[in-house]
Amino acid sequence: MLGTWCLALVASAVAVAHASYHCLPGAVELAERKNLKNPQGESYPLGIWVPDWAAGYAVSAIAHVLIEEMLGYNVVDKGPGPATPDAFYALAGCETPTVINRRGCSDLMSIYSHLSLEGWTTAYQSSWDDVQRDYPATAPLNLGAMGYVGRVSAFLTSKLQEEAYYSEGLTLEYYRSYNVSWTNPSKYFDNITAIDTSRLKRCNETRTQVHAAMQQYWEAQLISEVLFADILDSVG
Which stretch is the leader sequence (predicted)? Predict the structure, then answer.
């Protein structure tokens, strides 16, 4: 029943949006909304660079509605981009911000992406610093936090963790326990053939070729190992 009710609610909202062109009471009507205009006289809508993950789509959609209906500006979604640094380059005006080894930046860039939300900026400080240094005239500004924090990790259900731990003392939440000389952790995971290879990228298309990024991952791994060792010592 809950699923049916939710689907009905969404369908109703879509129907209302198509009928009246707005979601909020007191919204600026479509015909009255404005574009941005640059010093050369070019007119274009405000661009929201959308991060390619669920929370990124959600907050971008909210901002889209608020800016159009409450502030009265036309808005267009840009992207999406699979990583936070893509937003840095998009907002700086680079033409191909998602192409890691060729971002399409130059000294004469026009900016069509003006806002991006849900960026994990603290994890990409080196990339942020690069954009600020290389493109100071158009580099984006960090306007602060969204009001919440997030963490990145592998997800393992508690049921799976408990099964591995109570049946053979295997702690799946710690990757260094994945030692095939002692146990067979693979039986708790899908086979590698379950991976949709069409969704994979070549190494030279990913951040694995960025030295600063790999150094950051390596240092984070070392820190996590030290913290885990401290935890084991404290409970040992």
Answer: 1-19
Give the residue from 130, 125, 75 showing the smallest Cα distance to 103. Answer: 130
| Mean pLDDT, the chain, integer | 84
DSSP string, 201-234: --GGGSGGG-HHHHHHHHHHHHHHHHHHHHHHHH
pLDDT at 175: 81
Angstrom distances, CA of residue 39 to CA of 4, 36, 92, 188: 51, 10, 17, 59
What's this model's pTM, rounded to 2 decimal places? 0.74
119 token code pair: 């960026």
Q: What is the pLDDT of residues 19-57, one digit of tens each?
A: 456 899 999 999 999 999 998 999 999 999 999 999 999
pLDDT at residue 159 in the model: 94
The token duo for 148 is: 């919440």
How far CA 129 is from CA of 15, 85, 139, 204, 206, in Å, comes to: 45, 11, 10, 22, 19
What are the backbone dihedrals phi and psi of residue 91, each rounded to the nearest 5 degrees, phi first?
Answer: -70, -20
Task: Give me the half-sphere count of Cα atoms (radius 13 Å) on the Cβ side of residue 11.
Answer: 6
